Amino acid sequence: MALAYKLLEDGSGVAVDENGHPIVIDDAEEKEFGLDAIHLYSKIPSLQAEAKKYREERDKYKTKVEALGDLDPNELIEKLKEFEGIDPKAAKEALATVANLDQLDKEKNIEIEKVKAGVAESYNSKIRDLDAAHAKRVQALEESLASKDAAIRHLLIRGAFDRSEFIRDQTVLPPEIAYNTFGKHFKIEDDNGELKVYAIGYDGEKLFSLAKPGEYAPPDEAIELLINQYPQKDSILRTNAGGSNAAGNTAAGAGERAKLAALKAMNPVERLNAIRRQAAR
What we know:
By secondary structure, the protein is mainly α.
């Protein structure tokens, strides 16, 4: 399923429905709908509970099969012998039965084993059916979760690239190319039921905001930080044409890189204090 945001006619942003949800276009089925990422994410626990219910039902049938145990045919014969003497004919038949007890035991054992096998096969057949249905359901759930995770990531992260003024005004990259290059640095985590997006820098640590010291950089600021720290950023940033302005931009960029390098060399406490001092100026 290929999903894409529906953009406004002037290309200034993403269209939303009457509930304020971004509108997503499904190219495969040629339809569009509002995507509520938070609602989709909240469905995950109920799907997991449903999978647990299937496992418990399967275990219940296993318990019933094991409860059959090993039936003793002699117990059945003793019940029959209680009726001896009630009728002469019945007594003779009982004596004949005792005389052929060994053969009767074998025949009874065969019949009992047939009954046990039939019952066990019936339950095993149900277990196999449950296993097949459960496996199919689990596969469907996994595919559904993967699809929803992709939709959530597309909405929360790809959407930030599509809306980024920095990418549009300061770089030569289309949002799609910028996302393919830098989108891998962004992660989504569940913080007490609230989805939060954060970025991982080139050093493997979470990026902190320069505008709000002590907090993780929001997606729009993180995009700008990642691009400014990109080793080949000069090839993707827009530059003013020639003269002293170009030289000024180069000097400013070098100064910014020096500040970022100094921050990276500090431990987390020193880095936070330095950011706070810069914000207070």
